[in-house]
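Sat 14:20. Reprocessing the chain from the morning session after the first attempt stalled halfway. Input below, unchanged.
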Amino acid sequence: MSGLTLAQASAHIVETDPMFAVGETEIRGVSYRTFNNVPSDMRSLLQLARSIHGEGKNDFVVYQNERWTFDQFTAESNRLAHAMSDRLGIRKGDHVGMALRNYPELLMLMVAISSIGAVAVPFNAWWTSEELQYGFEDSNVKTVFADGQRRQRILSFANSGVQIIGVRDGETRGEISYSQLRDESTDTSWPDVIIDTDDDFAIMYSSGTTGYPKGVVQTHRGAISAVFTWMMTFVMAPLMADPTDEPLPEPGPQANLIVTPLFHVTATHPTFLLGIAMGAKLVLLHKWDAREAVKVIDKEQITRFLGVPSQSAELMEAVKDMDAHLSSLQYVGSGGAKRPAAQVAELTKAFPNSAIASGWGMTETNAVGLGIIGPDYSERPESTGRLLPPLQDLQILDDDGHKVTNGIQGELCVKSPANMRCYLNKPEETAQVFKNGWLRTGDLAVQDDEGFVTIVDRKKDIIIRGGENISCLDVEGALHRHPAVAEAGVFSIPDERLGEAVGAGIQLKKGRRVDAEELTEFLKEHIAGFKIPARYWFRESVLPRGATDKTDRRLLRAECLSS
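Finished this time. Tokens:
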């Protein structure tokens, strides 16, 4: 069987493969399509994967010269889980923070925390002390695992009620450390804690229009639904292949390179968690470096690369400069931001043996959503893709909440069991984006008659810089703290490498002066470096206003960029 449409392939798999059987389930008062037979929680996912992929001595996690097999990874994760319960007193439902760069410990901690029914809270490693303090207070974290740099930031505000567990260069004498917890515990059995599939799994922070990051509460069912939606795309691919094409090669050992931060869903969900289900080798880079990535891809025989658009572009340039071939690479994907259309053809030429792909998802959807790959992408480089089956529903609504016809722009809305449970501590904001199970994404989109969706704009005041979401209000709030600033308006500006960067139009107070260098130094104390404007426009007149007397960011942006 071959040459099926997306809908036909999905229906065939659902009907014939028990793993992807679908039923109806009521979740928090709303009926959803759900998988019947997939693992119910993260611990069950790891147990299933270990039973399939855990035998033997093949590497599972690789970081520089450090390696763990699947058995070693699960053993260390389980020792940590028991130590968290027995030594630290962490119980089901407790929120446990992780303030780390991309270390293997973060992967093990996420598994260990969820295995005892606690809730993992990965904090943005780029946040300042001020931003971390907000996250701690919002999430009510009492225990946090932190490396050296993050530990120092936390110490500036943490009180005696917060327990800091040092990791790697954050370990200090006289305090409980990650190594101590791991080495003291000898129990490698699976924790005996009852976890419901709709229990909370993680809280991941995503910039929003309120000026403060929102804690997105994800459940076990939500994350598992996303993982097995992606898994089903692999099973459908041969059914959808053109009969006249050469047969698809049998998939060999899979290896994923993790190049984006593990405090974002692009790294955690379609790379780490999907990697568990696939039995893939997971390789972490210490930090993003395109030339180093080329070396690691070749050495570790990486098959799957998923990063923000600027990373795939830089990888392509490094391959050219180094005269490399990367014959193992089967997939070059993009997430976190829209890839420039011109880059699609360039990547297809640079990686002829790889499927070039792009996806759209949100922290609020556990990263699952739309996807486009291969010839479909080459023919429609502006498109964001089609809705991935079989659990999701999509509609595009006008400002009055009515569904628009194909070809008409409206707000993209998605209904899925993968959607978040809520925004932490924000019932009003949750109610604004949820209605009868439908999530209003804030993205303006158009759908064609074949189901391909193109995202054309954002209703939200968000800048996406190299895949990193930046709230305009967040940056404006920091700018307004400077004594010379009367008013600030923040907007996106084009950036050839990152897609977008931060620009700011600033009205100075009468008689006050400040230059870009001084303002940048001031902002470093209040917001993460990636949020700091790349360019400022100073003015003495008031910023342009809209009909409701709010700053008109679009007009301000146009005025600044044309000046």
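Residues 462-562 form a domain with the GMP Synthetase; Chain A, domain 3 fold (CATH 3.30.300.30).
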